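note to self — DONT lose this again. spent like an hour looking for the file last time. sequence + predicted structure for the chain T wanted, 447 res
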Amino acid sequence: MAGSVTFVLKNPTTKKSGVKNQEPKETDTKKPDTNQQTPVLMVFYYKNTQIVVSTGERIAPKHWNKDIKKARETLDNPEGKNLNTRLETHKVNIMNAVRDHLTANGTIHPDKLKTEFVNLLRPKPIDEPKPKTFLGAIQEYIDTTSKAPRTKLSYGTTLNVLKNYDETLNKPLTFDSINMDFYEHFVNYLTYDKNFAKNTIGGHIKEIKVFMDYCNDKGYTTNQGHRHRKFRKIEETAETIYLNDKELETLYKHNFKSNPKLDRIRDLFMIGCYTGLRFSDLSQITTDKFINNGTQLKIKTIKTGETVIIPLHWTIKEILNKYDGKLPRVISNQKFNEYLKKVGEEVKINELITLTRTKGGLNFETTKNKYDLITVHTARRSFSTNMYLADVPTISIMKITGHRTERAFMKYIKVTQEQNAEKLAKHKYFIKPLKVVKRPGKKVVNQ
């Protein structure tokens, strides 16, 4: 056995005068006071080594049995049994610590072992966690959420905006600060001080609502100010484009053989236009994702985690044959967008597009060539809009795009007033019903 453990009192007897560590003399007329509590010490022996450490426990000497070195378990000492249980636990823990010490060091290092005993018997109290701050809770959410990296990056941007805003205030933001007064002041700050666009402001408001929902769920606050009906995301319809069927046909038929890189970019973009997949999902397409004899594509999307099944458009089948059943290598989002503009320019998709944007409370108009506005996300909008104009049921398109609400889906539909009127004109509501005219021997149908 690697040593032994026993327990003794620091002051087995204590005079009423308060003089400690002194045995009573025969000439003393005052009797020792055995009611005054004294520390219980742990004594460890190992060969010639003795280590003494206070256990942090205390007991009156009259309740201590010095022969068996335990507390008396008597009626006048109801805590004796509990103390003995704790001392026995201390003993077991000390011996375990000694064994671990010997295993790690090969021998006893008294000073080091004593420190280990102190930490074991009288561990330092754990500091109470500091009250969670609003900005601190946001950082915690960003650090622990399982959201996609791009989403976490967006959350970090909003946190930085809030930190900058916080520095302009007389007192720091708290959970209770998030109310309509904050909303109105924060929106004005972003509009006129930061000169942000409407949709940028709306994005920050949306994420603040996400942060507050998290803080509510964690019990950091009960404030529901962010759920006020007027505490809502500010937005304006984004002036984005799509490529219609005719433009896609022109793009697909164009000969890029003199520039193989643009040829591959065009082919990847076409796959996006006829699958509706996000950029992050294009790199996931492998041969094992094609099902039902290569007529469908089954893929679990990265952003939402939903599995979608997409019928293969004939264009995609031809592209796959071109690359022996595989897809061209996907490059970075930034490079993809850069090359797409060159693709659009070469194909002469150069319609002039006027964009209107609200920034810093003012409206701005800019005019650009359409090819300058093409991005990888244009493919997803083109897919949704072209299918919608082809009278494919909305619910069927949403099954592919993965949109959960029709409101979110309709943001992808880029239909002009003229296109909408033309589409409605073909509806039976606007067409004069056929009239059947009866004649002897035959029926003649007139409008």
